[in-house]
Specification:
alpha+beta, 12 helices, 18 strands
């Protein structure tokens, strides 16, 4: 099953090309082709040639104008096993040659760093024959998908089922060809949209130096990111579907994205804008809480995410932090972990959505409400069973609830740091042997294992906190025994 998605590139064309031709994702560059240059390892040269073509069009290069179109042709894991990476690459070349008529410069790169092989294709907006620009309109994606489907069928691959619909316009019925963006991405209960957002986030994190450039790069791929408290909300602009970071996986929350952008594990701190002493030259001085504005911490601006008046800084765990006095004179260096003597530790993220339901059965609203009530009762019974089992285990091991919470909290902190380190290593790894002899596929499996452990620990901590609350509530209830 092949899915075709498209976004627009309006700035930093060379960075987009650099991402797709990454040798770590393309078997050392063997799965990269450009129809106008042999310099397939030089993103700047490839981008410059496209820009020269755009300059020769009637409209030329304009601020906010489209420089190129970024097409992603992805295949299901089953189809990825049926075809070799080279065959997927050749299918992509046949696809782009047909949809462009050979009149546009393009770079195609086949990525093999995920369980589903996919083609990234950057098509120059300028037509080399007519000197006009390619415009992707409402019907374009449907037409391109039909081309991709036909090429897939010729190779014995699956395609998404056709959904022919009719629209009434001025009393006439017109046949609609292909899927609209929203319908295509809404297939498989939104899984296609989530895959698109994950791909966009992966690309943006690899090409960004701070959260602002990350947000800008996402926008070029058709995804908007909004900061909502400690969570991120991603919006697929084409379909309008919003996806919260917890629905994408731990690798896509704010702390782990900032770790990927900074290429290191991070220690987060939060502060209000009123605590900012000064900001210039890409650095920010923040008053240390509890020092009566006598000491300040120097924070690089690239490590900061702003949420209204709240600022969150993600500091590299291995890099000491510089402390200065009121006048900006050096005082000392401290480890990022020691900052929690001044700043509050961030709350541990819990994910109680492990029993998320995709739909509620029932034909009428009354039936649906009844089913919701039964579902809540089942959840409460499930939670109560967890609490009883945990209480039994703690009593057997002679461990207090508070001690158990501290132990689980420490284990979560350790697992979270290891998860971030693995995530950074995976972003930097290749399908070939890495420096320490571990394959990226093995890193990905270990990442999934650690994510499952984090989920189990988070659920365990949630259960322990409920148990502690229940114990305290029972202790606060007065006894009604008669003397």
């Amino acid at each position: 099953m092949a899915v075709v998605k498209v976004g627009q590139i309006k700035t930093t064309l060379h960075l987009s090309i650099a991402y797709i031709i990454n040798p770590d994702k393309t078997e050392g560059g063997a799965l990269v082709t450009a129809n106008y240059s042999d310099m397939v390892s030089d993103p700047s040269a490839l981008a410059e040639a496209m820009l020269e073509s755009i300059d020769r069009t009637a409209a030329g290069r304009r601020d906010g104008g489209v420089l190129a179109h970024h097409v992603i042709q992805s295949f299901s894991p089953d189809d990825s096993r049926r075809l070799t990476a080279r065959q997927v690459h050749e299918l992509g070349i046949a696809f782009v040659e047909e949809i462009t008529g050979g009149a546009h410069q393009y770079v195609i790169a086949t990525h093999v760093d995920r369980d589903h092989t996919h083609n990234h294709i950057i098509i120059c907006a300028a037509n080399t024959e007519t000197r006009r620009k390619l415009r992707v309109q409402k019907h374009t994606l449907g037409a391109w998908r039909e081309v991709s489907d036909r090429l897939c069928r010729e190779r014995g691959l699956d395609v998404l089922p056709r959904r022919d619909r009719s629209r009434t316009r001025d009393g006439l019925r017109t046949e609609r060809h292909g899927f609209g963006l929203g319908e295509l991405y809404a297939s498989a209960k939104g899984d296609a949209v989530k895959d698109r957002i994950r791909l966009a986030v992966d690309a943006a994190a690899a090409a960004s130096v701070d959260f602002d450039s990350f947000s800008s790069a996402l926008g070029q791929s058709g995804v908007r990111v909004d900061v909502r408290g400690r969570h991120l909300t991603f919006t697929d602009v084409a379909s309008g579907l919003k996806v919260r970071d917890v629905r994408l996986g731990r690798a896509y929350d704010e702390p782990n994205i900032m770790a990927r952008i900074g290429r290191s594990t991070v220690t987060p701190i939060s502060f209000n804008r009123r605590m900012i002493a000064a900001s210039d030259d890409g650095m920010m001085r923040v008053w240390l809480p509890g020092t009566r504005r006598r000491l300040a911490l120097t924070v690089p601006a690239v490590a900061i995410v702003r949420d209204g008046d709240t600022y969150r800084a993600y500091l590299p765990t291995a890099s000491p932090c510089v402390i200065t006095d009121r006048r900006g004179r050096y005082v000392r260096r401290i480890k990022p972990e020691e900052l929690y003597a001044f700043f509050s530790r961030p709350p541990i993220r819990l994910e109680p959505a492990t029993r998320e339901r995709q739909f509620t059965p029932g034909k009428s609203e009354a039936q649906r409400n009844w089913y919701r009530m039964q579902a809540r009762k089942l959840d409460q019974l499930h939670d109560l069973a967890d609490e009883l089992n945990t209480a039994t285990r703690l009593k057997r091991d002679d461990v207090s609830v508070d001690d158990a919470i501290r132990d689980v909290t420490d284990r979560i902190a350790s697992e979270r740091e290891a998860f971030q380190a693995l995530l950074v290593a995976l972003d930097e790894s290749t399908d070939a042997e890495t420096a320490d002899g571990v394959r990226s596929g093995e890193l990905a499996r270990e990442l999934r294992d650690r994510e499952r452990r984090l989920d189990r620990l988070a659920n365990e901590l949630d259960t322990l906190r409920r148990l502690r609350l229940r114990v305290r509530q029972s202790e606060s209830v007065p006894s009604h025994r008669t003397p």
